[in-house]
Amino acid sequence: MRWIALGVLLVIASAHCGMVSAEQGVLVLKASTLEDRPLKGLVLTTMGDGGMGPPTDDLGKTRIRLGGDTRPGSPVKLLIAYSPGGKEMMFISPWNGEVIVPCFENAPNCVHPVWLTDTKNKEILRNGKALTATTERINHATLAKELEQREVLSQRQRRAVLEEQAKTIGLPPDDVDRAIRASGAQTRPASYQKGIAAIYEQRLADASRHIRASLQTADPGLFDKYVSLGWAEYRQRHYELAKEALLQAQMMRPDDRTVLEILSRVYRALKDFPNARLSMEKVVALGPATAGALYDLAIMQKNDQRLDLALRSLEKAKTISRDKDQLANIEFVIAGYLIHAGRRQEGLRRFESIKDQLGADRFAGNLAWFYAVADLEQEFFEALERALRVRTLETLLWIDQEVDINKYREHERFKALVARYPRQ
User: Fold this and answer.
1) In order of start, what are the domains of the chain with their CATH numbers?
2) Per-residue pLDDT tens digits for 183-239
3) Helix or strand (DSSP H, E) at 111
């Protein structure tokens, strides 16, 4: 009897080990519709070196073999390879198809749920989960555009983002706009949806309040909440609060480019130049090394007393960029950095050669910076006054971060100009 019992134990142990090992390196997913019904016949794949799963079964489940280096806790981007009936489908949760790999074991908590729906489905604007995904999609596209252009988008530009994203989900932009605004106007208690609706409407103090109230440690959407909160705090110039939220997001996804880009600006505003540089170096290393990323890296390198590296980054950015305004701006910053490097006359010549290509309104802050570098005080104050008038928020953010204007911070004219725009 003793040997039989031991044999039974060995069989159970072997079976258990077999089940566990069979799931190593496999992402188990359960796909559902907006109505929480299993989604059968869906084929998902992963971006990168992962595989493609078989069609989801009657329970909506499928298994995808992951790349060799993927471990629990790693982010994986899902793509729709085939949808039932060939319909056009989109992710609802997670809104961008990016999941965090759970454990590699045969256990309920190791199955990652995902929700999808058909595009052009009007229920998207009535279903809470789907409306949150839609709002996040639009806000993230707006954030990405602002990071890329280094400026706050105009109402016309924000409308263009809305129309582009509405086209992706197959619904009229005015219907999407109304649904998001209505969700933000509801009188129910603070919620994440009210918070991101407030970001959409640029009511940033309300956004921070609602998102903070929605934070829960076990929430699978915690990463997106911290990113939204960090961005809202940054836009309000609450840099320590922004840093706190973004570091929470970074702990969950250390290689997220958006988090790193915002963090680099937060660190710069806090005068933590080494970490600002390290964050942007990681963005460039993660790729793609765009002209905009190299431009931002150059600024962080220069602030961290690495002027030679900054000039090299700018020259590399010039070889990549195909945008006329961006090329002029890069050349313009090179001119200022040459003055920093003791090559004043060369810097002034290069500035004169491209000055007329810079729009007076769009580049007012840049012009103020160059005049500060060149010790042209009267021109600096004239350009700064114009920049504060026509591009208020981005100029205030720039003032908080820029070290080359430190020599003017105690000047009465500088104090008077900035005092017109008190911190909220």
Assistant:
1) 26-121 (2.60.40), 122-255 (1.25.40), 271-358 (1.25.40.10), 367-423 (no CATH)
2) 998 867 668 999 999 999 999 999 999 999 988 766 778 899 999 999 999 999 999
3) strand 111-118
